[in-house]
Amino acid sequence: MVMWVFGYGSLIWKTGFKYDESLVGFIKGYRRVFYQGSTDHRGTPEYPGRTVTLEPADGEVCHLEVREKQYDKKAYLDFFTESMATTPAISGVMVYIASPDKKTNVNYLGPASIEEIAKQIVQAEGPSGPNRDYLFQLEKALLQFGCKDKHVIDLAGEVRRILAETELTSS
Fold first, then answer.
1. Torsion of CA 138, 144, 150, 154, to 10 degrees
2. What is the DSSP string of 86-99?
3. Of residues 55, 65, 68, 167, which has the active-site annotation?
C-alpha cells in the first residue's frame, strides 16, 4: 500500500517514522499558520505552545518536504511540485489539520497578532522542548528547501527580538 503524508510542520525535520521517498512541493489554496495549541509537546495546559496548522487561503501555497493527536481533522489533498502546474504530482496526500471548532478541538488558539503569538512562543515549553525551538527548526528547514514563508520568518524574527530584549534587560 502506498500512502503519502504531507509534512508542513515538525514532520519536515523530525519525521518519526520510516519512509521510502520524500518530495518537496506544496498544497495549493492553503497557508501555514501558528493557530494550533500544543499542551503535550511544546507547551503545557498553563502555558500552551503554538504549532502550525493549515487554513484555507485563496491564492496561497503551503510548501514542505500517533504525534498529531491534537489535530482533529484529516484531509486528502492534491500535492504539486511546480507552482504553475494544473495537474497534481500526487492526489490524495494525507494532511492533518486543526479546525477552529472548539467543540472538537479544545487546543485551537486561533489568530492573533505576530507580537502576541511570539510572546506565547517565548514563554511556552513542553516535554519536547521550548516552543521557540520548534519555530526556529521549522524556519531553518523551510529555508533549506528554498521556501520563504512570510508568516514563519516574521514570527521567528519577532521571537528573536523578544529574546534579545529579554537578554539585555536581564544583564
1. 60
2. SS-SEEEEEEEE--
3. 68
